[in-house]
Amino acid sequence: MALLRITSPHTHRGGRRTSWVMQMVILATIPGILVQTWLFGFGTLINILIAALTAIGAEALFLKVRGRPIAFFLKDNSALLTAVLLGIALPPTVPWWLTVTAVAFAIIFAKQVYGGLGNNPFNPAMVGYAIVLVSFPVPMTQWLGHADLISAGSTMSFSDSLSAIFGGLSTVDAYTMATPLDAFKHKGGLMSDEAFASVTALQAASLNSWMWVNLAYLAGGLALIGLRIITWHTPVAMLAGLAVVATFFYILDPSNAATPLFHLTSGAAMFGAFFIATDPVSSCTSNRGKLVYGAGIGILVYVIRTWGGYPDGVAFGVLLMNFAAPLIDYYTQPRAYGHKKPKSGVAIGGDK
Amino acid sequence: MSAATVYNFHGGIHPPENKAQSLRLPLGHPKLPEELILPLGQHIGQASRPLVAVGDKVLKGQTIAINNGFLSSFLHAPTSGTVKVIEERPIAHPSGLADVCIVITPDGADEWQELEPLRDWQKVSKTDLLAFLAEKGIVGMGGAGFPTQVKLQGAQKHNLSHLIINAAECEPYITADDMLMREKSLELILGIEIVQHLANAQQVMIGIEDNKPTAIAALEKVIRERQSNIQLVVVPTKYPSGGEKQLIKLLTDQEVPTGKLPADIGILCQNVGTCVAIYEAVQFGRPLISRFTTLTGDGFGAPQNVEVLLGTPVSHLLSYADANLSQVERIVMGGPMMGFTLDSLSAPIVKTSNCILAATRKELPLPEPEQACIRCGMCEQACPASLLPQQLLWFAKSQEHEKAEHYNLFDCIECGACSYVCPSSIPLVQYYRHTKAAIRDAREAAVKSDIAKQRFEARKARQEAEAAEKEAKRLERQKAAAAKPAAKKAAPTKVTEAPAASSAPVDEETKKLKVDLAIAKAKLKKLDKALQEAQERQAVEEISALQLQVDGATADIKEMEAKLPATAPVAKPKDAAPKVALSDEAKKAKVDVALASTKLKKIEKQLADDPDNAELRDKQSALQQELATAEARFAKLQPEQASSEAKPAAAKPVLSDDHKKAKVDVALASTKLKKVEKQLGEDPDNAELKAKQAEFQAALATAQAELAKFEAHAPVTAKPEAKATAPADDEALRKLKIDTAIAKAALKKAEKALAHAQEIGADNVDTLSQQVDEARGRAEALEQALTKGEVPPPAAAPKAEVNQLAEQIKQQKIAAALAKAQVNKLKKQLAQQPEAEDLQQQLSVAEAKQQEEEAKLEQLTNSQENR
After folding, report:
1. Taking the model in full, what pTM does it have?
2. B416 touching chain A per CB within 8 A
């Protein structure tokens, strides 16, 4: 009998491994993916598949280059999660090479180059997204419209999706339409109520379809909170930040600004709040920090949507707050047991 | 039972409890093992000191080791038997290192020593009760094994609002406290009453987790029956609610400030096992020799709780509870969250062993390989100290110690909750332990280097000071040598002064070393005190730092002591040589005298050239005074000299020395007298000079008397002193000699006073002469005693001295009063005849006399008070 010498604790919570955490996050995106597929066709699913293959390939390749055990790290599902998130975020009709570029860049440059899982300062999925957004703005802003509003009159079929992604579908224009955010941003001189009355992409059907997508991600996000994989702090702070700023400007100028509800239910608001901003590696770590971090993203999203160059601002909002996360962390330490007030700032020369 | 409010603490986890296994069987009582292994360090603090030797027979309950310092404990034989061996054995310690143990072979009789209970504990003082508990070896049985009397003593200094009895037992698997509460609920409550008697807290609470319904019911019953005001507070099951700080938060909503103790916020925590042990010690006089321990885990065929004798090897318990050793992969002492693995089955049960967990691989699987931290924050949510474990991990890995401290690493209680929940299986606690140790090491190293620096600087300063002093001395000697020739002719002293000067450096060095040693010792004492204080405050950090300093200081002292004997033998023989014994101070006084007299001479010369210069006259009188005081000091130092010279074993030189000194005194006094007379011839009306003349005459008389005495005594005293050298270092004899010297000095003083009184025709001549007779009597008696080599009863001598002193004071008082009366009389006379010059002179003399008497009185009173 050889006795094991090991330090405490001797017991661990079974099952809840990092791979399980990643897996749960992936599973939580399923309602959203389903709604997206139902509304916009199979493009999203095909994107996710391409992204997943690329991610696994890129991860394996670079683990090998870095001399790390490949299977051990691939099993943590983190690359897969990045791929799924990117696949969801990309428009359903983007050419395959664009997806491959985004994912490969995300895995290789945003993650592996920094040292792999846990060491990346920026959200890899959003780095990949931002790269292709600034590099290929045309395919990146081409979203599909609701079946009732587009000239094709129906959701894109599986084969059409495939050929759009791989061959270049000539009739793709029949399916595409600006997203509500895009349409609202480019409403020109119209008052908001005029825009909602006249612009196709701002019709109720279009708005509702995006609301359903957002609600589906909200459901998935709540499930994650229920599983205690994420805490409520970041999503609530981000949505609250967005809503508060939107309300403020709506009250200030109701004729030109959109309602807070419009902001909360369009674009990547919920997806961003529950799946992107909550990436633990690149976000703030203390509960107070998460509140600041989330609120910052919410405000930035509104700023970019309203005054920036892009219709939606989740990716840039998250990336900008990633920059700020370490700083926020220094100033948002929790109050430890036995301390009157929390410590903050960076230790200079030791404080004990 | 009024339901008390239960608060909450941050974090916490709910691991599988696994408590049912060990509660299926009743309490077991294993048989005596073949040997009992009792480590000397079963508690926090210094290891106990063994009182028994190999082969000694011991009885059950007999003290076999006593405490070794403040933070230490007693140890008792758990059964009767023979001390087999005292040696290093593997013990139950996280380090896995061996430690010194007393091994007892039981004789099977289990024969108790006669026990002495302390049933009237309510009547004895709390200090006595605490001391009693210490003697019974009671230590905290919950975890650390902190000596209970120290904890209680510390807590007594505060006004306690809460006494919290920790019955939470939050660790999975362990049920020892649960079983103890079921079996000994009454004893527990009675024990708590004793603790409460000592702590005197406003509120007494028992904090117990709600997973122990049987124990709760049993305690409630006893509390009801006794109509006790102890509050039983049931807290929800959550790990680590049994942590002291967490339980305090749960029950009182107060937090123990970081770096402080619960006592600092008026709270005292005690474990249930400790309370029962206290009761049994007080009621039956039973020392802490056994405890309840849980034997559990899938490795045991019959998991159960046992009442086991301390020192029982784990292997004995494994076989007792049918352990299937082939299945056991890990043996944990303590629970699965905070316990540590044993790697030797021969390790014994100690006072703090609450559980033996023999786990199979299935039960406690190997930890999964560590994955990257994704900062998911689950650890943060679980941390009961509200730390940021994920950040601490980063700082630990990158060895950013300052940041780790800034993120309150030292508030981590190492409960393991973070590691338990970590999805990446990171052994977080291990990282923190390592970092804490690294930080402590760094701090200790910093302290060490600070000490080294201080020592170096002190040494440098000392060397510089020594060099400066030497230089100053050299200059002084030069000056003194230039001033001396005149005095040299008059006094043969100077002949002996020369060898003294030559031997001075060695003597000097020894003395300096001695002084350094004394300083170092004083420093050590101070450090020791600080250390004790730190121990009282239980400031672990500080203790280790101070311990280091103490060690450093001790090493210093040793070094110095080693140096001292090296120089001492060189110095000693010289001490014996006649004149070297002149103490430094005396030498200095002599130099002062010489200096003052030179100065005086110079002034006098100037005065002769310019007799009307008032300033010079003033200076002259000032110098005269200075000279007088210097001489007086020198004279005063002489008797001391005598006493210090009495010490060296060589009798002959000492004697001749005294003799010589007396001669020198005579010579000195006569020179002085001559000088004064000469001055008086120049200035016949100077009252001061006249007074001085009288004084010198008296001194001369005394000195001559002494010389005569010496010449008479010399042959007599020489023999016994020589005899006394044979037994050499007889302490009593030495004391006697000192006493004799003191008595002689007193005699001299009295004689002087008498002479003085006679000189000025004071009225107290009679009393003074009586005093002189008494002093002489005592001196002679002592000398006789010395001659016979007899030692007077040790108690009597100091008493006699005290009496004598009182007598002296009385007489001095009389003398002072008389002098005052005389002054008054003279003043009255002077008032009637203001022109009478001689009256004025008399008055000034009388006033001087009065002052002198009063000064003497004061001195005497002081010396009495100092006694």
Report:
1. 0.68
2. yes
